[in-house]
Design goal:
The protein is of the alpha/beta class and 446 residues long. It folds into 4 domains: 122 residues, Rossmann fold, CATH 3.40.50.2300; 172 residues, P-loop containing nucleotide triphosphate hydrolases (Rossmann fold, 3-Layer(aba) Sandwich); 78 residues, Helicase, Ruva Protein, domain 3 (Orthogonal Bundle); 52 residues. 48% of the residues lie in helices and 13% in strands. It has a 5-stranded parallel β-sheet with strand order 2-1-3-4-5, sandwiched between helices. A 5-stranded parallel β-sheet has the order 7-8-11-6-12. It is elongated and about 85 Å long.
């Protein structure tokens, strides 16, 4: 992944000095945003991500220390370096005691400044989290705390349950935990437990022997054995049928799996990370999820906040996704306009990061300029926000429409419909009952 340039917010009321420092720092590989007053700078920190703030101490209106105090309230992990032509030991002590990263006296020695900037950037929370989670773009204090907790438990061979709404990045976090663990050189295998019918899910997980069921033309080892020595990620574990939950629990307790149709068990060494958007406590109360399996999976629980609760991440995520999309599609687009960023930062994002990806992709594809305007973002958002179904809702909608078309095609003949769908009559009747479909409604009255 291409590493972005370190971003510096530079503030000084001396326009000439501001311009000269900007030119020099940009020439050395920094991405510099320069403004001549602290009030403007503070507004920029709300909707933009910076790796370090470099500010003059003495300025009209809000001074450098007052700016630092305001930044500290929202971005406690953002290093602030202060400069002053009126430097004194008293100023430096007062500033550092309040948490200012460093204090430089004008005229600033540029080698010392560069060294201080690089040290501050490398020590910031976002930069110091580590390569294990480099694909997770964040500056949210809540997310950084979550990542540090994830790093702590990564090397411990305990099961992890990741909670969070659809689209928040649960699989990304699971893979990051795998990358930080001692198993990182072994396979990371993922499966969505709600995407397959029960019989196929069982075969996918545990494998099957040749001839164990209709269509089993050859033996397969299953995902547990494929992930041996590594990590198996069970996404949407809350959608797993209860009968299969029993077999999963047995496999975890005995550390072995028995392929479908086999009388022999095979030992496995797999770490389980599971994820769900459902409330499993509620599912247990209505007997849709086994309590014993819940406690087996939920040794450590990590809950990813929705995107609207980590608004600090929206600008940097949008920029990161824009760079990725522009590179992938070879489109010459540079950034979002400021008002476009403001619009995204104040949107609800019911589809979370997945929805943001779609909005950015659409904007990059449709833009006719190098800077994406707010109007294009607004158009993309209005299309996305019409309705954002969960994965379960989307699957149920497809299933209902598929069954209707199938029954229309077979004129309500359940046996023929079962054959075309590759399911038995019992399964077909269960699906029809689930969706309130009656075969007679599809038979011709002529």
């Amino acid at each position: 992944m291409d590493q972005p340039k370190p971003k510096i917010l530079l503030i000084d009321d001396d326009e000439t000095l501001l311009r000269l420092m900007s030119i020099r720092l940009e020439g050395e590989g920094f991405d510099v945003t320069s403004v001549n007053n602290a009030t403007h700078a503070l507004r920029l920190t709300y909707n933009n991500a910076y790796d370090v703030v470099l500010s003059d101490l003495r300025m009209p209106g809000m001074d450098g220390l007052a700016l630092f105090d305001e930044i500290l309230q929202k971005h406690s992990d953002l290093p602030v370096i202060l400069m002053t032509a009126h430097g004194s030991v008293k100023d430096a002590v007062a500033a550092t005691q309040r948490g200012v990263y460093s204090f430089l006296t004008k005229p600033v020695d540029h080698k010392e400044l560069r060294k201080t900037l690089l040290r501050a950037i490398s020590s910031s929370s976002r930069q110091s989290i580590g390569e294990w989670c480099e694909d997770i773009v964040t500056r949210s204090p809540e997310m950084i705390r979550l990542l540090k907790q994830a790093e702590q438990i990564a090397t411990k061979n305990v099961s992890v349950l990741i909670s969070g709404a659809s689209g928040t990045g649960k699989e990304l976090l699971a893979k990051a935990i795998h990358n930080a663990s001692d198993r990182k050189d072994k396979p990371f295998v993922a499966i969505n437990c709600g995407a397959l019918p029960e019989n196929l899910l069982e075969s996918e997980l545990f494998g099957h022997v040749k001839g164990s069921y209709t269509g089993a033309h050859q033996s397969t080892q299953g995902l547990f054995r494929e992930a041996d020595g590594g990590t198996l990620f069970l996404d949407e574990i809350g959608d797993m049928p209860v009968s299969l939950q029993v077999k999963l629990l047995r496999a975890l307790q005995e550390r072995s799996v028995r392929p479908v149709g086999s009388s022999q068990s095979v030992e496995i060494d797999v770490r389980i990370i599971s994820a769900t958007h459902k409330n499993l406590n509620e599912a247990m109360q209505i007997n849709e999820f086994r309590e014993d399996l819940f406690y087996r999976l939920n040794v450590v629980n990590l809950e990813i906040p929705p995107l609207k609760d980590r608004f600090e991440d929206i600008p940097i995520l949008a920029e990161h996704l824009l760079r990725q999309s522009a590179k992938k599609h070879d489109i010459n687009v540079l950034k979002f306009a400021d008002d476009a960023i403001n619009l995204m930062s104040t949107s609800e994002w019911p589809g979370n990061v997945r929805q943001l990806v779609n909005v950015v992709e659409r904007c990059v594809a449709l833009t006719s300029s190098q800077i994406i305007p707010a109007s294009l973002v607004e158009q993309a958002l209005s299309q996305e926000n019409q309705y954002w179904p969960t994965l379960t809702e989307a699957r149920d909608t497809f299933e209902y429409e598929y069954l209707c078309r199938l029954l229309q095609l077979t004129e309500g003949n359940v046996t023929r419909a079962s054959d075309l769908a590759g399911r038995n009559r019992t399964d077909m009747h269960k699906l029809m009952k689930k969706h309130g479909l009656v075969a007679a409604d599809f038979r011709s009255t002529n």
